[in-house]
Amino acid sequence: MASILDEYEDSQNTRKSAQRNSRLSNTNIGIPHTGFVNVRLEEEKPIFNKQRVDFTPPEKINHLVVCNNQLCMNLGKDSLLRIDLTKPDQRNQIELGRKDDSTVHRLFLDPTGSHLLIGLSTRECLYLNRNTQKVRSLSRWRGHLIECVGWNKQFGNETNTGPILVGTSQGAIFEAEISAAEGSLFNTNPDQYFRQVHSLEEDGNPAPVCCLEVERGLENKDYIIATTRKRLFQFVGKVAEGSEQQCFSSIFSQNQDQLPSFQEFPANMGYSEITFYTSKLRTLPKAFAWMMGNGVLYGQLDFVRPNSLLSDVQVWEYTSDIDISVNKPISIVLTQFHFLLLLHDRVKAICTLNGEVVYEDVFPDKSGTLKKMIRDPVGGLVWIYTERAVFRYHVQREARDVWQMYMSMNRFDLAKEYCRDRPECMDMVLAKEAEHCFQNKRYLESAKCYALTQKYFEEIALKFIEAKEEEALKEFLLKKLSNLKQNERTQVTLLVTWLSELYLNRLGQLESDGNTVIIRETREEFRNFLSNPKHKECLYNNRSTIYDLLASHGNVDDMVYFSVVMEDYERVISHYCQHDDYSAALGVLSKHCDPKLFYKFSPVLMQHIPKKVVDAWVQMGKRLDPKKLIPALMNYSQRGSSQQINETIRYIEFCVYELTVTEEAIHNYLLSLYAKYKPDSLLWYLEQAGTQPSEIHYDLKYALRLCSEHGYLQACVLVYRIMELYEEAVDLALQVDVDLAKSCADLPEDDEELQKKLWLKIARHVVQEEKDVKKAMNCLSSCNLLKIEDILPFFPDFVTIDHFKEAICGSLEEYNQHIDELKQEMEEATESAKRIRQDIQEMRNKYGVVDSQEKCASCDFPLLSRPFYLFLCGHMFHSDCLFQEVTPQLSAYKQARLEELQKKLAATAQASKSRHRPVPKDEGDAASIGKGSAVSSREQIKSDIDDIVASECVYCGELMIKSIDKPFIDPEKFEEEKSSWL
């Protein structure tokens, strides 16, 4: 046989009309107001997709259970088939081995799929573990017809069920435990214990237990739900600490003193069935559905409530085509949003949100009578079986249309939760929510929702404008603005401008009302809007528009704030200056330290708060250019000019002495201020500024003119000295102080003639103006250049020689001494000339011996082969080799001179050859005379050439020393030389 579960065939997939009614209409094609295109390109698969398992049972199927991908079915009378759905080809068939007439009453499979209980019609119970092939009898269970089992989801495992609850047809509830491990020698039964813990009744009589469910909630509190045919019981209790795993008997004992909590319905169809929905294995169930006589009781499970699990309970009555007296529902299965009812020939799916039938599937007669419907809590598949076939339903995207139902119920939060991945549906939900809020006059909430939709912007804005809800309109625009992208600049500009206008209107209205608290909050909100970094680019690009809006509303404070946000400090400072708040303007300047703004506003501020302005300048230090502050420094005002001048001098002194500014304009201005207002500081400044023109940063001519205009003669003398105009300095100093003139006269140390001239000026002034002979003689002693005869003409005729006796005698003695020194120098010069003549004579008679084996120091060839030169140092060179060595070392002038001499020597040689020809006799005397003169000229040329070439050894003389910094290879020939070595 082929695979049982891998291959399927579709059955009656055309019955989808009921499900389609709850979905979006396929006729909604095009672009609606939302902006989304709602076109279904292909048919959506149904939520419940039925597939028939490709399996033909050898015998009729009596019972079937599925859990955790483990499927067990009872075939015929005594056969049990087990299939692991992960390995569908590996089937396992077991014979129960019953010889009597007993049949299988029910099968029970635990959530792990490991423990199978087989209830027999003869009030016996068998046990089969997934890992064994042996069916074992539960002896303690004998005598009870098992109707339901409440499995332990907390402590059950593959080898042990943990404490479980068992319900019987007589209304008794037992607590039991089964272990798959082999028993001891004296105890071979798998059932560990089996004891009754409670019994259920209806109308005073025992009632069969139809269903049992056990759950553990928060704080280890256990919840037990038991149902009979028309009652639903709840038992809530907490197991005592230290008890072994879970002891259900203690929970029932806690409820014995009071009647158990139950719900009862009048109708009775002989049985009931309860089902739970759990999203994941080993998690608490979220909802329940109880199929009983009146209909289906549906609700949520709330484990937080103290005494009852059930919440939001409602009854869905059976439809008119279900008559419990004739056509009773067989089984019920609960999914996330639907419960499925199994009838004798069909399956109905009812939505738990609105109670509508969304799916109905009729089974053909050939499939047989429908027997049972089961849901695997692990895989989520729904299984239905007949005597001859097995079907299963895939539940696909069950929540895809739930949003519509929640939306129609105005439960918008849930609707949005279930369409997060579908923007077109989310937009419809938001639009519906916005409209709902608008109709209920919840305008702010409506605005927030409208801003998230794709509906036409103008339409929504007009709605709020017509309703005169500016706050809602503002909220809508803010939300819309936050959702825009940075590249949508036009839209951003529109919204930012509009919002600014709305804020300003609101502030204007509030100011007229006088509510200061709301004004403060609104202004803070407006300023937060203006300072939002997301809007900064837009606000900066459109700042002129915002300024116009602020100005039109007369909102000066917010205009200043906006200027600060835009870093438009010029506007802020201008505003403060216009309102005579100069300290605030200076505060903005000092805070942001923009030099350009300092240059622009300092002239105005200097007129009113000079001290504070200068303090700010000093704090800025080198970040300010003092030259650009000169207009502010020179902008005197009539009031308080003395304070401004003092502060101006303070700042320029700071620039000169602290910042060491060298700008000539600054130093000249300081000079002018000193000359006008602080003359005591003028001379000190000139003295410390330096005595050399290169050290001085002010204009000397300007300083001279300034000092001259104000009559500061001593300062003028100092400037003349720096300018090296010593005559003018002395002339002016004589008007002030003779000692000052003397100090000026000593300055030209390198020019004795000028120095003597200056001292003569001083002497004349002393003699002629002061008529003080003693002072004149002191001048004579102060300067060594002056003689008594130099100053005698200055004295008047009536002065007797007695006043100059000592000076004249001293002068004559100096003359005699000077004559003696000259005689001695002449004798020394004569002796030196005599020694030089002797040395020359000795050099003429000096000679050297050259061996025949000697070689040229340059070319290394025998020396005697060509004319040569011999030097005192011992080096010997051929004449042509010496020329080659020396010529490159000569200067350009000497090279030209040498070339000229060589040409002259060649010309004299040519002339000498021509003279060797025979000549007439009468011309002989003249030729001999010309020959003599030619020889003498030739010798002179050779001598001149020798002076240039052979004046010193090329290896030992000055030429070699001068060539020490020259490279061995000429840079122009370096590349050529380099390539020759490769």
TrEMBL record:
Location(s), subcellular: Late endosome membrane; Lysosome membrane
Protein name as catalogued: Vacuolar protein sorting-associated protein 18 homolog
Domain Pep3/Vps18 beta-propeller positions: 46-395
Domain of life, source organism: Eukaryota
Bias kind Polar residues: ranges: 14-27
GO process terms (BP): apical protein localization; bile acid and bile salt transport; endosome organization; endosome to lysosome transport; endosome to pigment granule transport; eye pigmentation; intracellular protein transport; lysosome organization
Keywords: Coiled coil, Membrane, Metal-binding, Zinc, Zinc-finger
Transmembrane spans: none
A molecular-function term among this protein's GO annotations: protein-macromolecule adaptor activity
Presence of the UniProt keyword Zinc in the record: yes
CDD domains: RING-H2_Vps18
CHCR repeat feature ranges: 621-775
Sequence ranges assigned to domain Pep3/Vps18 RING C-terminal in this UniProt record: 850-916
Coiled coil: 805-846
Annotated Pfam families: Pep3_Vps18, VPS18_RING_C
Record membrane topology: Peripheral membrane protein
